[in-house]
Structures are given as C-alpha cells and as structure tokens.
Amino acid sequence: MTVFIGLLGCGTVGSGVVELVERRADKIAEITGLRPVISKILVRDIDKPREGLVDSSKLTTNAHDILDDKEIDLVIETIGGIEPAREYILSALRSGKHVVTANKDLIALHGVEILETAERHQVDVLYEAAVGGAIPLIRPLKDSLASSDITDLKGIINGTTNYILSKMTQSSISFETALAEAQRLGYAESDPTSDVEGLDAARKLTILASIAFTSTVQLSDVRVQGIRKITASDVRFADQLGYVIKLLAVGTDREGRLSLEVRPSLVPKTHPLAHVSESYNALYIRGDASGDLMFFGQGAGSLPTASAVVGDVIEALRNLQLGVSGHSQHVYANHKPAVPSRDFLPYYMRLSAQDEPGVFAQIAQVFGETEISMSNVLQTPTEDGHAEIVVVSHKASAEHIDTTLKRLRQIEQVIDIHTVMPVES
Ligand SMILES: NC(=O)c1ccc[n+]([C@@H]2O[C@H](COP(=O)([O-])OP(=O)(O)OC[C@H]3O[C@@H](n4cnc5c(N)ncnc54)[C@H](OP(=O)(O)O)[C@@H]3O)[C@@H](O)[C@H]2O)c1
C-alpha cells in the first residue's frame, strides 16, 4: 500500500529528503509494509532551479494543496522558522495527518502546543532531526535510556560555533576572521546572531533536557552565553594550559532541580569532546543505570539531516501499519525548577591590569580572602604597557567565583576582566 506524503519546503534538508525517500522507497516498503511517495512539495519560488531530483509537476506555492489533500497522510515540514511553519503543522495535525519536522526553533518554543494537538488528534509528531542532525538523540533519550535516571547532558550541539572555534584554534585567527570564513563557506548565516550568541544551542538544549529530565523546559530556563567575546588570546592561553575552547550545552538534574546552561568552556585536550571539530556534534549523557554514553556525528547537512527525517517517517509508517499512531509524543506535566548550577568546577579568568609592582599580590590576596585557590597563573606584558593575567582556579561554585570577580573589579589597577569560563575536567 502507498502512503502519500506532502513535503513543506525543498531547500537543504527538503531536497535531501526527496532524494532519500526515492532511494530508500523499496527498503522502507519492505520494513514497514507501506510505500512512501512524496506527491506534493511546497516551495516559495516555483521557478527556482532545483538540482535534478525534483519532478517539477509536484511543486506548489499553495500550502492548501497539501494541507487539504485527503490522500496525504503524512506531512514533512522543512520550511524552518516559526510562522507559517507552526500554522501549517497545527493545521495538518488537526486534519489527522502525521507530522515529521526538523524545526528546532518551533519545537523549542511551541513544542507543548504541537505535541498536545497531536495527542488530541491521535497522530504522530516526530522531530529527531531538530537536534544533532544525523545523530539519533531524541529516540535514545525517549526510549532506549528511559530505564535510567538521566542526571547529566553535556555536548557540542551547534556546528557553526564549533567550526568558528575550531578555526580560531587551528589557524590562530580572530573570531571575526573565523566568522567571515564560516559565512563564505556556508557554515554560518549572513545574520549569525542565533548561532554565535548561543541561542540555537539553547533551543536544542531545551528540547533535549525536556525529554532527558522528563519535565517541561522553557527556553527562559536556559542561561546563555555565546562566543562573541572569545579572543585569539583566550584560545592561545587555553592551548598553553592544555585545553581547547568549546561552546558547551550543559544540563544537570540534581534531585529535581535543573541547571541548564550554554557557555564557552575550556575542555582538556584529552577529553573526547575536544576532538569534536568543525561542524560535527557530540552529546555526552550520564544516567544512573546506563553509566556514561557519548553520541557523535554530523550535526547538519542535507543528507545527514534527511537521514534523521526519513528515520522518523519510517517510525510513523510503522505506527500507522500497526494502528498505534499518536502515542509517540511525550508531554510532561511537571515543571522542575531551573536554578543556577551548584556544581563545583575550576574556572579560567583572563584580566588586564596596570603593569606595576604589587598588583599581582593584590589579586592573589583577593583569591586568598575569598578562599579560592589558584592552580595556574600566566602573566604576559601587552603592547600598550599593561599586563594580561590568566588565572585558573581550583574547583569552586559559580556563586563563589562571582564574589571573587566583584572583589577583583574593586582593585584600582585592574583594568578589565575580559573572559570567565568554567574548565571541564
Ligand atoms: N540545514 C541543515 O543542515 C539543518 C540541520 C538540522 C535542522 N535543520 C532545520 O531544517 C529546517 C529547514 O532548513 P534548511 O536548511 O533546509 O532551510 P532552507 O534551505 O532555507 O530551505 C527552506 C525551504 O522552505 C521553503 N520555504 C521557506 N519559507 C516558505 C514559505 N513561507 N512558504 C513556502 N515555502 C517556504 C523554501 O522555498 P524556496 O526553495 O522556494 O526558497 C525552501 O525550499 C529548519 O527548521 C532548520 O532549522 C536544518
């Protein structure tokens, strides 16, 4: 039996989906008993040249050609953004169509509304491709690891910032030069704000944390710091100390209190996450029964992302064939409170000060009085006659570090505290 599919959007991901559905149709029919056929494709510009794959007679610019087509049982959304994607998905669900989407922005911001609508109409809504591209993360957290209490998530889930930081490390270039190169190669958008400010990673963390910690999680629960302030000096100092800088998404559940952060961090060169470079993604998960696990792979791209989308299509077809559609989504009734992290970590601090006798002694005194011991100190003169000082502390709480920073700012000769980052162990 054939199942007709309507595809909303045929860009990077959508064109990969068209290719993969065609290529794998026989295999999918064999494993699900249902043959998927993409019968209509919504685009914005029907005259745009599209490489080989798309049969142009399937293209439409009218969403109702898909949403009102009673023959179509499943809709794949790869338009992106909030509207009109949200309106189209809700309309499809209300008409009893199953939905597969790659849209992290929409799921992070309107996930509850979408999942509840799917539940009410007994249809599936699946979104594996929304986080981590090709890497299966949602399904393992939802199913395979459901027997464990997940306590920790830590990962690199934004390819653009990982590409920029990797280039800054490999080629000793500034943030601005690395960003320009990422934009030239298509790894970063012309407006890179969402990526470099950490918002994209925060949205993905919202989705992952909700499933891992079985709680509704809102974007506002995530404390976000991007990578715009990271300089070539930070990268160089980190290297001298044996670390690389990575933008990490970190979530913990400590006895029902969640701490969710996206922030640049120093990662030891020997740590598995240090080797995740360019546009690759990785997620480390700790569960009480499962122990430690790490997922790694292509976090974006046409076919890698399409492979996750088509994986969801296969699940939806299986459910349809077995008559068990509408049970795959999880809407969590409880909202665990989000609190600042109380975990103890070493911290890296880079500051500039007047290059005068006695200044370093005053800085050391503040550390002594606030009971934070220093594990490493680097000091270099700068061209403008100041001193650049890097301190790596022993383990301390974020609250404790904040007190120390406040005291350091009161020292007259301290010009600025440029960067503060936790150090992973
Ligand atoms: N790119 C990746 O590697 C990646 C990875 C993971 C998840 N995602 C997610 O996948 C989704 C799609 O991303 P993408 O990179 O494939 O985007 P894209 O290349 O910009 O493609 C978007 C497609 O949607 C169509 N479209 C946009 N707005 C429309 C509208 N209002 N009405 C009708 N059609 C419209 C466009 O039509 P035209 O072709 O006529 O312009 C285009 O075909 C996003 O949610 C993104 O976050 C992407």
Automatic annotation (TrEMBL):
Its cofactor is a metal cation. The active site is at residue 204. L-homoserine binds at residue 189. Keywords: Amino-acid biosynthesis, Metal-binding, Methionine biosynthesis, NAD, NADP, Oxidoreductase, Sodium, Threonine biosynthesis. One of its GO terms (molecular function) is NADP binding. NADPH binds at residue 104. InterPro entries: ACT-like_dom_sf, ACT_dom, Asp/hSer_DH_NAD-bd, HDH, HDH_cat, HDH_CS, NAD(P)-bd_dom_sf. Its EC number is 1.1.1.3. Pathway: Amino-acid biosynthesis; L-methionine biosynthesis via de novo pathway; L-homoserine from L-aspartate: step 3/3; Amino-acid biosynthesis; L-threonine biosynthesis; L-threonine from L-aspartate: step 3/5. Residues 348-422 form the ACT domain. CDD domains: ACT_HSDH-Hom. The keyword NAD applies. PROSITE patterns: ACT (PS51671), HOMOSER_DHGENASE (PS01042). One of its GO terms (biological process) is threonine biosynthetic process. NADP(+) binds at residues 8-15. It catalyses: L-homoserine + NADP(+) = L-aspartate 4-semialdehyde + NADPH + H(+). The keyword Amino-acid biosynthesis applies. It is an enzyme of class 1 (oxidoreductase). Belongs to the homoserine dehydrogenase family. NCBIfam families: PRK06349.1. This is Homoserine dehydrogenase. It comes from Alicyclobacillus mengziensis.
